[in-house]
UniProtKB/TrEMBL annotation:
A Pfam family assignment: NLPC_P60
InterPro entries: NLP_P60_dom, Papain-like_cys_pep_sf, Peptidase_C40
Coiled coil: none
NlpC/P60 domain span: 52-182
Alphabetical UniProt keywords: Hydrolase, Protease, Signal, Thiol protease
GO molecular function: cysteine-type peptidase activity
Protein name: NlpC/P60 family protein
SUPFAM superfamilies: Cysteine proteinases
UniProt key word Secreted: no
Range of residues in the leader sequence: 1-20
Family per similarity comment: Belongs to the peptidase C40 family.
GO biological process terms on file: proteolysis
Length: 182
């Protein structure tokens, strides 16, 4: 039961961190603070501290936005996300200063190769035309298994929103690089 309460509180705190803080009514903000103080140490959320942020909490937060619709040039969960708006929103809720533009992610974090990618890294792709080798899309590594890499992103394709996709075929041909921010 404590784990369920901790997960709910973590989601509320993560969703209300930074700019989004005003979406939680003041009376509930105080209630959440009191509940968090009374949680066991291991159950307390660790958001807004980049040194303590782990990939699991980052992915859990990103996953909470599955299905939010795609909307060009937007980084607001109430209105929708474009790809870089989604990635930027997720990382900024954990205290990271990241770009708002997919092209700027190329010079953010530490570049690594696909074989050394880890959950929470940012994948950088071309736009929808893989022959034009210019940055046009970003997503976050969601999982890495023997079956391959999955990533979470805001897609303008058939999903038309935040979705989880395999890094294969279409996206593999569009892949440009990986950067680690965590």
């Amino acid at each position: 039961m404590k784990k369920i309460i901790a997960a709910i509180l973590f989601f509320i705190l993560s969703a209300t961190a930074g700019k989004a803080q005003t979406t939680l009514p003041p009376q509930y903000q105080e209630l959440v603070k009191k509940l968090v103080v009374n949680l066991p140490k291991e159950a307390k959320p660790t958001n807004n501290n980049s040194q303590e942020t782990n990939s699991e909490s980052l992915i859990d937060f990103a996953k909470s936005m599955l299905g939010i619709r795609y909307r060009y040039a937007t980084s607001n969960p109430k209105l929708g996300f474009d790809c870089s708006g989604f990635v930027s929103y997720v990382f900024s809720n954990f205290g990271f200063k990241v770009p708002r533009s997919s092209r700027e992610f190329s010079s953010t974090g530490k570049e690594t190769n696909l074989e050394n990618a880890k959950v929470g890294d940012v994948l950088i792709f071309t736009g929808s035309n893989s022959k034009v080798r210019r940055i046009g899309h970003v997503g976050i590594v969601y999982s890495i298994t023997e079956n391959g890499i999955k990533f979470i992103h805001a897609s303008s394709g058939k999903a038309k929103g935040v979705t989880i996709t395999d890094l294969d075929g279409h996206y593999k041909s569009r892949f440009l690089k990986v950067v680690s921010i965590l």
